[in-house]
Amino acid sequence: MRSTHSYGRSSTRTNGRPCLPAGGLRRDRMEIRKGIAVSPGVAIAPAIVLDSEQFRITRRSIEPGEVEAELARFRGAVDRALAEVRELRQRVTRDIGDKLGAIFEVQDRLLTDPGVTQEICEIIQREHYAPEYAASTILRGYARKFLNLPNRYMAERVTDVYDVEKRLLRNLIGARRESLGTLTEPVVIVAHDLTPSQTASLDRTKILGFATDLGGRTSHTTIIARAMGIPAVVGLKTITADISGGDSLIIDGNRGLVVINPDEPAVARFREAQRRFGLMEKELGDLRDLPAVTLDGHEVKLWGNIEFPHDVSTCLARGANGIGLYRTEFLYLDRDQDPTEEEHFQAYAEAIGLLKGQPLTIRTCDLGADKFTHLSGDYDERNPFLGCRSIRFSLQHIGLFKTQLRAILRASALGPTRIMFPLITNLKELRQAKMLLNDVREDLEDEDVRFDADMQVGIMIEVPSAAIMARHFARECDFFSIGTNDLVQYTLAVDRSNERVASLYTPGHPAVLRLIRTVVEAAKEAGIGVAVCGEMAGEPNYTPVLLGLGVDGFSVSPATLPEIKKVIRSATMDQAREICDKVFRFDSDREVDAYLSEISRRLLPEMFA
Ligand code: PEP
Ligand code: MG
Hints:
- With 609 residues, the chain is of the alpha/beta class.
- Magnesium ion binds next to helix 19.
């Protein structure tokens, strides 16, 4: 979520004196850039700008008599590059888990694919070009193919191709690997892009954070950064051009901000945010096993949002008592075929096993719009966010949908499992989805396959039509989960990923709050559960108002779990209701957000200085 913040939006400029100790070229003015927050935490340090490690490859020819020796040199480079990739994969698997280690599979495949190496060898043999030129030409051809794919997940794999190219060239040319190993002082890194290998090799004690021009939430680089706990902001477009080595920098991986040459008040403010984050990390041990209960004993569910089954462990370690949103579309990441029923099942079974009796809420695939499967390439939509995404996509691909439903039902026999359908906009969709679920149930019964016949079926409330009609939906499902990321986007007509309208995007808008109230009231009336699983649930400023509205579950990203638990534990329900009443008297998001910031400071002065 692009939250509001008191210190301005992208490109906000404030006069002030940069105050962090650092050399290099200086500007007089603080500048703030907004990018995509991909790994939480706040880093404050001088920047180093990584050069893009461009090798100058000329179209060098070789003599016919040199061909054999050059082929041998190329094959040696491939072997060494492959050994490096495998070693890196082993290290990442050991340090941060096998799913992340598997990210290097793409590179392994490129280096071992006989077709790819054959193409390179042919150019060396037939055209008599040097291996450097041959390898670079062929691999860049592959990169172009990736880049041209309309499927964004696949297009982001282009960094893996560049990674392999650089690795091969380094091994051919014998250039030294990146010099980050020689750092003596903590720094933050600014780069056009970081390859997954570079990220996995970062020394966490010296590299406090990174910011890049390119990158998205789902790139391998950012997935690795998250797992390593390195604060990161990506997608900043021109950050390498805006910064000189030695500039002071703040990287706020919680809000997606980069502050260049911050003035003293900004440094103080971000140190404060950093302190709060650190405080929560320290308090984590104490907080983890405490219930998410208000001062007067009202308990709510505090769950984690996950993208991969192994994220369950992080959520539990940070005090979650279940998973309120498993974004299963990540099963489609990096593949050119749909996952099989068995692959779905294995992923759910892994999550359920790790949860040891705590509930798992599986959201059926939310594909389309910004989340692609290889099938998405077949469609070209002018307005993908208003197009065939999410449940609409599932209902148009019944085979794919039923495969997932079968796997979810089978997994439900292993532990408490709930299913929810995303982006429901009308009752017909819910009924169709439930009908397909029933068909699958009957098939499983016929086959004598076990499943939980009482598995709860819920829907996400992510569009105004569903919120307004919540009373009707509540009669036909077991729970609601409010997806505020989309609800805000569709209510305010603000693209959640468009930087130019980011200042308009806030859950504090009275229209959004009113829709949430309608949904909660409908759920209460029908006696069904209602949680919030969008980023709003992980913003401590909104916790009292959601509590006051009567939300009974918060499902948040693992980074924010302790903070939210702490806020829940700091208020009574009477206070929360009072805050809520007051909030509904305001008619602008500015007033709402200013008031809620003030409340946070009052409730927890040590946290919100
Ligand atoms: C939401 O829209 O709030 C939500 C949780 O779903 P996603 O962010 O995956 O679209
Ligand atoms: Mg959504």
